[in-house]
Amino acid sequence: MQGGSRREEEEEEEEEEELNIGELASNLSTYKQQLHQVRELLNDEPTNSEYVDMERELSEVIALTEELLSTAKQNEISTATQSPTPTYNKLDLHTHFDHQHQFPVGTGVQAVYSDDGDWYDATVEAYTPNGYYVSYDTWGNKEEVDPR
């Protein structure tokens, strides 16, 4: 029984790494946009010490984020050869009352994102009294999804 439990932990760690890659990539894009804006401000006010500090700090954050992203991608490549590609299931549970047994934590699913009503690939992270707490694979956004 302990071996199965360890495998589940490994799968959860792999899923977290995948989410982190999406979050890191999104953050990196944001940081680069912010750096571009700060540099434009510096063109207008090259002696502004706050802008100089922001440029230095954003450059450091970008370098660190790029390093983390590179490491996360290398880890994903090494684990991708060990585990099969996840399949995604629609979160349509009208016929199943006990939803916890239908989609275990870590299962790849498709869920409706509340902001736009569209279906997206997601991963079940936890059970809630009303359904599931999912993380959307592409952006890393998380929310509760009611399966009904």
From TrEMBL:
Cross-referenced Gene3D superfamilies: 2.30.30.140
SUPFAM superfamilies documented for this protein: Tudor/PWWP/MBT
The UniProt record lists the keyword Nucleus: yes
Entry superkingdom: Eukaryota
Span of domain Tudor: 102-148
UniProt entry keywords in alphabetical sequence: Nucleus
Main location: nucleus
Classification via InterPro entries: Tudor
Annotated localization: Nucleus
Gene Ontology cellular component annotations, sorted alphabetically: nucleus
Keyword field contains Lipoprotein: no
PANTHER family for this protein: SURVIVAL OF MOTOR NEURON-RELATED-SPLICING FACTOR 30, SURVIVAL OF MOTOR NEURON-RELATED-SPLICING FACTOR 30-RELATED
Name under which the protein is recorded: Tudor domain-containing protein
Organism name: Medicago truncatula
Lineage of the species this protein comes from: Eukaryota, Viridiplantae, Streptophyta, Embryophyta, Tracheophyta
